[in-house]
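Entry for the shared binder. Reason: the reviewer on the internal report wants the predicted structure included alongside the sequence.
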Amino acid sequence: MDIDISESDLAFEEEVLRNPFKLKGWLRYLDHKRDAPVRTVSVIYERALRSLPGSYKLWHMYLGHRTGQLRGKNPLQFSDEVRKTELCFERALLLLHKMPELWLKYIRFMRVQADVTRTRRVCDRALRALPVTQHARVWRMYLQFAEHVGGHTAHHVYARYLRAWPEESEQLVDYCESHEEWNAMTLALVKVLDNTGFRSSRGTSEYGLWVRLAHVLRVHARDLQGWDVERVMRDGIGRFADQAGALWAALGEWHAGQGDVERARDVYEEAVTSVRTVRDFALVFDAYAEFEQATVAAELEHDVERGRTGVRTALRLVQLERLLERRAFLASDVELREIPHSVRAWLRRAGLWRARADDSALTDKQRAKALDMERETFAQAVAAIDPRRATEGHVDELWLAYARSCGDDSARRTVLDAAVAAPMGSVAELAHVYVAYAEHELARGSVEGALRVLTQATAHAGSTRVDYRNESVAPAQRVFKSQRVWALLVDVYEADGRDSSVRSAYERMIELRIATPQTVVNYARYLEERACFEDSFRAYERGIAEFGYPVAIELWNIYLKRFVDRFGGSKLERTRDLFEQALDGCPSEYAKPVFVAYGQLEETYGLARRALRVYERATRG
């Protein structure tokens, strides 16, 4: 290990001899000799490490120096130098075996060599020597080495890796796919999917893994051995019933790829009648249509070769046409499975049968059957929908559409009778049905029928204190307080000339406290039109008693105007008494129109002095 020492080296030699355990001296010496021959630099490193065997910096620089000299050289031709470098790594790791960078440098050096076994053992020793927190850095290089080697080595290394990092199982799947090892890829995916606790580090969902497995089974079916493809795919379909479209399509394509056309058709039929979402249906139906078009194209090609059209071709064409005709009904089935309480979905379903019945190309028998199916659809709808869970509409719409679909009045009455007895989502829906039922009777000229319906709606044998807005009470027990029903009942009585019934209806509305200010005004005007002025005034007074301010002031204004128009100054004292009642308890912000009308009354029919007093009271507030 002797080297030639020049005069420029003497100062550095003296320093390292004087302080052999001082790192900076050796570093300055090495920097000074950086352009010296390789052997000279190596000797200085060896001398430095003999004095400082535990220096990480020295070992790191020395190993970098040794590996740098071998970079780009054939390890077989320079086997002695390679062996010496390996020994240097082993010497460094005797004391610095916890330093991950040295192990990584050693692994990088060994990967260049042709000895797979020794490289693998270095990786194993690194994993045993380093703490678990540093293993990820080692495994990254270990897996790159294993993938480069391939074969059983790669699979054994991945098996060990996945025992420690199971969430990285997709790396093995990717490796198998890149090397076209389809059996191994399928096995890896199945193991992942069988592990219920698996959580992908990439965020891949379980469904995404199933779709990937289905793709492998479908595309590379001929390369797989020992796999029951249909059983595996149906297992995935059972797990993801709400997202099974891609899996159903893959299963159908697999059967078609195997040449089993009838089995593929059975799978597609099962799929379009069992998928639960419109998205899955669109995916499966498109695959089904493409499959049928492919079979037709294949039959046509055979016919061209034979020179004649066969029966099988005609059959395939008929099957394709029927499939396309069924699309709307199949899509409707899926929509109803997805949202069974959708009113709009059921109406669209019935509309399909109505459109079919309107098709002029059908026979009378076929149109009659379509109309029967429309009514059957409505019957299924009202039986299936929970009124309180109904979406995209209300149940009353279905009942009324059901009644309109019936061909004769008797059938419509039967449906409407069932409708008013059926549960509804709200009292407004039930009131709507009663009103529609009554309007149907009126349209047929049956006033008695309309009154029967409305009387049934407004009749109530129990307590009248039921809160109309209390949703916890059934709509049938609250509909007797529906203003809409009462308003129609009054209109029917009035149109039929039943004066006493009209009065009774208005009085009943006021008693039930469902009358609005407009109802009171309408009642009073009705009485005025029949010259029942005192009864009209009493109606105003009952309304004023029912409503507080500010509504009462509007009724007072109408009442006082009607009274003054009727009597003028003939009943002046009574009129004054009414104005005083109106002003008694009236908030000041609402009193102005009453004071003005009162003053005008005194100016016109009374005394100017009294008018001035009224205006004076008004200005005092």
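Summary line for the report: The chain has a mean pLDDT of 85.
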